[in-house]
Structure prediction request, 309 residues.
Amino acid sequence: MSSSSPSISFIIPARNEEASIKETIESIRLNCSLSHEIIVVDHNSTDNTFLVAKEANVKVMKKIGGTIGSVRNKGATIATGSVLIFLDADVSLTTSWQDNISEALLAIKHDPLLLTGSHCSAPDDDGWLSKLWFSRFSQSESTVHIGSGHLIMSRELFDRLEGFSEAIATGEDYDICSRAKALGSQIVNAKSLKVVHRDYPKSLFGLIKREAWHGLGDAWPPKKILQSKVAIAAIIFIALHFLLLLIVTTNIVPLFFIALPIGLITTLILLSSFVKFKHNGYKLVLFNTLIFYFYYLGRSASFIMRAIK
Prediction:
């Protein structure tokens, strides 16, 4: 690496990740030959995450309380790199990442407002849900946002954005990408920078739980809801189910009107699948239409979780 190349700070939030954090650190050391530092921010762990990270000879700090955005910001306070790479504690770098990171860093050097990274792939030996949903989603052409599981930006851009929002429980990645766009940033999903998320849900119930959590950041206040196409779609999804229930349980309209909400729900999930997976062919679009139903069940649960808080 030349002296003019950017230095890199990996910032890894971790909560009860003693079984995973060592593998993530090892993947960085194996696949990043450029000058770098690794910072692990232990967030209220009740296991040995802090000790395992410490034994791996990386920078470790503790963060008590706060949102995930505040945890990422905490790591950035001691980062010395001119490029910040936010990585989740169960994500591994790959040889493809190693082969293509220099090009990405050069792009950031020429355009400090560039925000890049990639959507996480699932392990090759993972289950059917990961193969047909998560790994295919990682190949999406969408540049609406890059997930904070693998998000790369210059220190300059991070500082100009004043870091991640610390006011929202989840969705801090979508929020920072939106603010970066408003600042004039280009959002680039660098699919060649392949990373592997080792802990995707293996079941539809796991998907529902995951999306219920991820949807919390969009479920309130109303301004956030109106800014999120997914949140608006989830509200439509909920409303159509209420309409379906109303038709089934009352005599307000003839029962054959049940076809209306069912048809609209089917249209919503089919269109959603088409938008996300059209580049993978119609068979996958049709299959993932069914999975989108459970995806929206999870996003709908976000509103319930918000309401009972």
